[in-house]
Amino acid sequence: MMETQSKIRIKDIAEMSGVSVGTVDRVLHGRTNVSKKSLEKVQKVLDEINYVPNHYASALASNKVHKFAAILPMHEVDSYWARVEKGLYEGVRKFNDFKISFDVFQYDPFNDESFKSECDNLINSEPDAVIIGPIFNYNIMKNFVDRLDKKELPYALLDSNWSEFNPVTFYGQDSLKSGEFSGRIMEMAIKGDADEIAIFRVMGEGRVASRQQMNREVGFRNYMKEHCPKCKIHEVNLYAYDKPGMKEILNEFFTQNPDVQYGVSFNSSIHLVGEFLCKEMPKRKVTLMGYDAVDANVKCIKDGSVDFLIAQHPHDQGLNCFRSMFNACVLHIKQKRDHYVSIELLTKENIDFYTD
Amino acid sequence: MMETQSKIRIKDIAEMSGVSVGTVDRVLHGRTNVSKKSLEKVQKVLDEINYVPNHYASALASNKVHKFAAILPMHEVDSYWARVEKGLYEGVRKFNDFKISFDVFQYDPFNDESFKSECDNLINSEPDAVIIGPIFNYNIMKNFVDRLDKKELPYALLDSNWSEFNPVTFYGQDSLKSGEFSGRIMEMAIKGDADEIAIFRVMGEGRVASRQQMNREVGFRNYMKEHCPKCKIHEVNLYAYDKPGMKEILNEFFTQNPDVQYGVSFNSSIHLVGEFLCKEMPKRKVTLMGYDAVDANVKCIKDGSVDFLIAQHPHDQGLNCFRSMFNACVLHIKQKRDHYVSIELLTKENIDFYTD
């Protein structure tokens, strides 16, 4: 388990180049005040010995502040995005031996203008690297990514992946597979072969909040079409900015559709349905499945008003995404393009052993 | 996020005690060749200032080799225990700045004498700390643990927990909850309310290999008794040292019990049943569930001969267990008694995103 390797020290390079140790040090760390002649001498030796720079030591020694910025959907305490953000900040702390700054810009996921204006703020803050929790709209994302590319600013994608872009890395679930998995669990939960299922969507501006959510629904529908072709799937649209209206919509839906015994939501809001049924229709038994072990959902799992959650370790997503960006942008280590995170089923029986 | 604290340096302690820096250093690192008088002077100052030792620096500076030993069930390449062992060795590597030795003693889990004799070998090797993958028998474990206690040797338990013992820490699944979770999944998989289920057990000396396995079965049966009371549960005992005999037993069982459509195993051997059915009774559809994402099981999930696996990150168990023991025994940081690991469902849809 021991490895030996002959290490070339700065002292050796200095001797080989015929310059001082201090000069080699200045060259290696990219500092100024080195004469052109000395620089050439050192560079020649570095080329000859195939010198692989120790970026870690180099970055530690550097006076440069590495400016990271993230643009994320605005979020309440304990939401999916709050946990991702906590993970990002833990990443910042992990590398606090280095000079790092980190700013987070929050946008309204249902308001394209809000995203655009936060993109402007982010770019004006002149970061060195960017982490993006993407907005739904392709053209708006494309415009932002093009601006980053033009400035040669490296960026990472979190949660929603886009094969059309070239981020340093992506962290999040494979949304289609995640939807197929939720279909598999639903198929197991339903007992008859012609059951009725409701998809609950939290909408704004006529769409859900993210591509990740939209594609989970695609994966779910693909699975159900193949494995439960006779199941009837209802769509129930709830409006993010109309909480009182939600109650009305749910009340109407469940009253008009007495045979719906199963429900699913592809974001972390299934607790809204669980709480509604618990309070307003306590005798109605609907098997519910949703995403993310946020506190409100965990509470519903424990009291039985929600049956299944699919979890994805948001804190680890944030932490690992920050680490990847740090490795790529500060240590110049190439990162894997796609990091698909786990797709985990939580029930009353195993939820106590899940950690973010 | 910055903390400031006034640090007392060795130099300060030396001045306050009126001895040399070297003497303080020797006292702090527990070395010999310090006069009784100097020792008392230094100790008095340490008491006065409520000195909290920096165990990390102290351990790094020490010349002591920390001898860790593990006693584990013998295992084939890629088994659950092979992955745990890999994790333990990764732990050893992580702390290779320290002087650590690590020996693994392997015993036959179905042979009590083999365990006893490896316990002797382990104790004769004079380790400082012990990691135990327990044998099934309580009295034999008790005897071993008593010997460790008498020598004041700290130990950890892996996989099977025993509330009667006082290990530094335990890493593994909550076996009853794990069994209940497998019951929940089985309840969902079965479609009728009076279905027939087979429990496949790999036995030796009239028992399964571990308490963990036995208690998973207890949890499973509890769940099924409550939620599917009309289900008929068969027991099929396979013998670990009689591989040809397995085929005969499975053949006889499936022939005599044409209504059994579901099967479960509480260790990592469900692939034996999947492979048998695939090859010998390709038309017989049995929904199978087992434990552990070992290669043979993953292959069965992908070809559809096994439907569900419950996974538990064995590599992380080994790594984290070693880290805990290192923290407890070298850095003198108290560890949590029980570390219950996650209970994860793997299917064809999400298995690609699971990592050990």
Strand order of the largest sheet of chain A: 2-1-3-4-5-11
CATH-level-4 superfamily name of the largest domain in chain A: Response regulator
Strand runs of chain A, count: 12
Stretches of chain A where pLDDT is under 50 for at least 5 consecutive residues are: 1-6
Radius of gyration of chain A, CA atoms, in whole angstroms: 26 Å
Task: Give the key terms.
13 helices; alpha/beta; about 350 residues; six-stranded mixed β-sheet; 12 strands; elongated; Rossmann fold; disordered N terminus; six-stranded parallel β-sheet; homodimer
Topology (elements, then pairings):
The structure is a homodimer of 356-residue chains.
Chain A (H helix, E strand, L loop, with lengths): L9 H8 L3 H8 L7 H13 L6 H7 L4 E8 L6 H15 L5 E8 L4 H13 L4 E4 L5 H13 L4 E4 L10 E4 L2 H15 L6 E8 L7 H17 L4 E8 L3 H14 L3 E6 L4 H11 L6 E5 L3 H9 L4 E4 L2 H16 L8 E3 L3 E3 L10
Helix pairs in contact in A: 1-2, 1-3, 5-13, 8-9, 11-12
How would you characterize the overall build of this protein?
Two copies of one chain form a homodimer. Chain A is an alpha/beta fold and 356 residues long. Chain A has three domains: 10-52, no CATH class; 66-172 and 314-341, Response regulator (Rossmann fold, 3-Layer(aba) Sandwich); 175-311, 3-Layer(aba) Sandwich (Rossmann fold). Chain A is 45% helix and 18% strand. Chain A has 13 helices and twelve strands. In chain A, strands 2-1-3-4-5-11 form a six-stranded parallel sheet, sandwiched between helices. The first copy, chain A, has a six-stranded mixed sheet with strand order 7-6-8-9-10-12, with helices on both faces. The first copy, chain A, is elongated, with a radius of gyration of 26 Å. The two termini of chain A are 33 Å apart. The model of chain A is unreliable at 1-6 (pLDDT under 50). The interface between A and B is medium-sized, with 30 and 32 residues.
